[in-house]
Amino acid sequence: MVLVGAGPRASGLLERIAANAPDLHGGPVEVHLVDPFAAGSGRVWRHEQSPLLRMNSMAEDVTMFTDESVVCEGPVRPGPSLAEWAADPSTVDLDPAVRAELAAMAPTSFPSRRVQSAYLKWFHRKAVAALPAGSSVHVHPAKAVRLTGSAQVRQRVWLAGRSEPLVADVVVLSLGHLDTEPAPEHLKTADYAAEHGLTYLPPDYTADADLSSVPAGADVVVRGLGLAFVDLAVLLAEGRGGRFAPDGDGLRYLPSGREPRLHVGSRRGVPYHSKTGYRLRGEPPGAPVFFVAAELLAGGGEIDFRRDAWPLMAKEIAHGYYRELFTGHPSRVSSPWAEFSARFAELDWYSAEMRELERSAVPRDADVLDFERLDRPIDGLTFATPEAFQEFLLGYVRADVERRSSSEHSADLGAFLALLGVYGQLAVLAASGRLVGEDGWWHGFFSYLASGPPPDRLEELLALARAGVVSFLGADMWVEEADGLFLAGSASVPGHVVRARGLIEARLPVHTLEHTADPLLRSLAAAGEVSDVRGLVGVSADDSRLLDASGAPHPRRFAVGPYTSNKAYAAFARPRTNAPAFRQNDEVARSLLRFLAATEVDESVA
Predict the structure, then answer these.
(1) Which of 165, 185, 209, 292 lies at 20 to 30 Å from 33 by C-alpha?
(2) Phi, psi at residue 160, to the nearest 5°?
(3) Non-local CB neighbours of 172 within 8 Å, separated by 6+ positions
(4) For residue range 30-72, what is the model confidence (pLDDT) as tens digits?
(5) Domain FAD-dependent urate hydroxylase HpyO/Asp monooxygenase CreE-like FAD/NAD(P)-binding spans what residues (predicted)?
(6) What is the Cα gyration radius of the chain?
(7) pLDDT digits (tens, 9 = 90+) for 143-170
């Protein structure tokens, strides 16, 4: 078999192939891994990136192993989380800086991406070693450019710079995050920048972007306040020689003089919420009870996101939030959890009766969960001067760091854990092909609420703002091209306009099949051998077999990853969360092993 893409998703598949092979295949397998980046870590988690870049998950919240929570046909094979592995990495040859970081790391630390790279490479070697006796694994540090072969014959995978193809019974596309061709508006902006001698960086993976073109001391507009912006600020500040020093209860930034001045805004106008730094104080979470994909799918017909899914999702998240509030902080509520939860279960989330239940049982407004206020926290607020808005937003960020660092607010963690359960259920709905009306809002809201930076990154952002390296523009940000410059402002400070010589899109490229830059997918699309499902690569809902343009599954081709209609984003997961990617890996591994076993029987008979 050939796996195109050798990052952590491919390693997870290899682990599931090894776990399931004794029951479904028995004999050895020959595997070819195709990826220009190192096997195990792949592009995103490669060691060769700035040591300043970190994960936005705590070490104890990262695992590549299935556990008792994972609902799959294949055998569960538990193993250490990143934190558990870090306690004894003695069998691994490590970079000295990585080894030093591991020695100082706690389970609640947010490790560097290079530490995660080491863990992923270790897991990969372990997965390869577990394959059936006699198996072989060949690594090809190249890019796959073409795939040929009908359903009846072995497949041929053509690699860049190689005249002969790899030949295999089955092919799995485990491509990970992909580049896309620049959108027309980005090409237009790039032309404008070139004409006027300005700096423009379109959407990109921050670790891959060439930031050398961003001049020191220049005013640069940044569009986006998510994780891509956090990485950008790190690389343009500390990455250029600046440093942070303790200053009372916070930090002070000591500039190198090589930093630009970043003027940043977004639609929402505030940074992503900090990750929580505490554990639950009340009852542990359970499986989703209100938003259950199987129950929605049993109804038949299309499932509209706003009408059918979101009210149940909101109720599920609120249930997790209130369970922790009532069981972890009983002094802040006026009724027992059993009484509240029984009535809660009877009511629609958006009903007047639900609002009355909240008012009667949760005395403090600050403890009531309000999704609309969470989503757009500064809507309707305006400020007379940019200085007044800066002070307001610095206070907002400071309050967020304090909230996410104090277990008095552990109900937020209850909501976060419920969000993870909801995320997995929504992936099942999306894979069914019956979910309509989701315009991307959910993924943005999820990321903003649950996938933000470590709290100390926001502490650093506050220090950068106080040092004048970062200034905040506000909500509903706008950017115009005029007077040979980039002009920017927002609804938060009417009349205030920044004039800048640079513009950076601090967001990841949105991959679609129509505009993919991946040569293999482009060739399949041109040949009509892949289907476009709302911009995603179409795969079958049950086992992720690649669908051709007519919607027919190819028995010898599979595809997994965020670019597919069965998208399960994370290749690794928080332990004990029944991670969608782990379940999907098991399904794919079992399907391809059954195919290989049947093919060998047919060939032996023939």
Answers:
(1) 209
(2) -60, 130
(3) 1, 2, 3, 4, 10, 13, 557, 558, 559, 560, 588, 592
(4) 999 999 999 999 999 999 999 999 999 999 999 999 999 999 9
(5) 2-177
(6) 25
(7) 999 999 999 999 999 999 999 999 999 9
Q: What integer pLDDT is reported at residue 92 of this predicted model?
A: 74
For residue 309, which phi and psi values (nearest 5 degrees)? -95, -50
Q: Is the pLDDT of residue 373 over 60?
A: yes
Measured distance CA(154)–CA(556) in Å, rounded: 8
CB atoms within 10 A of CB 162: 13
Helix orientation angle between 386-405 and 455-466, rounded to the nearest 10 degrees: 160
Task: Please state the rounded mean pLDDT for residues 339-346.
Answer: 98
Residue 223's nearest CA partner among 474, 497, 482 is 474
- Report the candidate in 146, 144, 175, 138 with the shortest Cα–Cα distance to residue 42: 175
**E runs forming strands in 393-501:** 435-436, 470-474, 478-482, 485-489, 498-500
For residue 606, what pLDDT is reported? 38
What does the pLDDT read at residue 605? 38
User: Residue length, the chain?
Assistant: 606
At 422 the three-state DSSP class reads: helix
Residue 428, pLDDT above cutoff 90:
no
- Strand-pair partners of 252: 245
Q: Which pLDDT tens digit goes with each residue over 10-39?
A: 999 999 999 999 999 979 999 999 999 999
What is the token pair recorded at 160?
A: 């860049």
- What is the set of domains in the chain, with CATH numbers? 2-46+64-72+116-180+511-605 (3.50.50.60), 184-272+453-505 (3.50.50.60), 293-380+402-450 (no CATH)
Beta-sheet strands, E only, within 155-313: 155-159, 166-168, 171-173, 199-201, 219-223, 243-247, 250-254, 261-265, 303-304
Euclidean distance between CA atoms 396 and 378, whole angstroms: 10
Q: Could you say which DSSP state residue 284 is in?
A: P
